[in-house]
Amino acid sequence: MEEDVIKKDGYSYSFITSACSQCEGACCRGESGYIWMKYPEIEAMAKYLELSIEDFARIYLRKVGHRYSLVEKQLTEDDYACIFFDEKLKRCGVYPVRPRQCQTFPFWEIFKNNEEEVKKECPGIL
């Protein structure tokens, strides 16, 4: 079985997608933070969940300044997860419509010149 390796211009590392099945959702959980959502993502996720945009926003979003973030759930004292993280399956429960922020991980600008930090976050870094 051939494994998918993703590379992106400007990044010194690459990412092996098969690692996702082994890490138990490390990128979906950890310290409290933000999972930013733009309106088209909100629309797509609401439709996927068969909710109105208003109901989706009321249940799953929190306003932070002028932006919106998905709410989190607290798993333990120091461990938070995206509200859509499936704790039993250890994966995203809305994967087909996950936010762009999630789609682009681990190729985030914050990690571009910090390979050691991204390696701590993701076991799929080569």
Describe the structure.
By secondary structure, this protein is an alpha+beta fold. A three-stranded antiparallel β-sheet has the order 3-8-7, with no helix packed on it. The protein is built from five helices and ten strands; from the N terminus they run ββαββααββββββαα. A hairpin with a 2-residue loop joins strand 7 and strand 8. Helix 2 (39-48) packs across helix 3 (53-60). The protein has one domain. It is globular and about 40 Å long. The mean pLDDT is 92.
What does this entry show, briefly?
It is built from five helices and ten strands; from the N terminus they run E-E-H-E-E-H-H-E-E-E-E-E-E-H-H.
Fill in the keyword field for this structure.
126 residues; three-stranded antiparallel β-sheet; globular; 27% helix; alpha+beta
Q: How much strand?
A: 15-25%
Number of strands: 10
Question: What proportion of the residues is helical, as a percent range?
Answer: 25-40%
Q: Work out the helix count.
A: 5
Low-confidence stretches: none
* Cα-based radius of gyration, to the nearest Å: 15 Å
- How many distinct domains? 1
Q: Mind describing the biggest β-sheet? A: 3 strands, antiparallel
- The averaged pLDDT comes out at 92
Look at the helices and sheets and give the structural class.
Answer: alpha+beta
Could you state the order of secondary-structure elements as H and E? Answer: EEHEEHHEEEEEEHH
Shape: globular
Could you tell me how far the N terminus lies from the C terminus, measured between alpha carbons in angstroms? 18 Å
Strand order of the largest sheet: 3-8-7
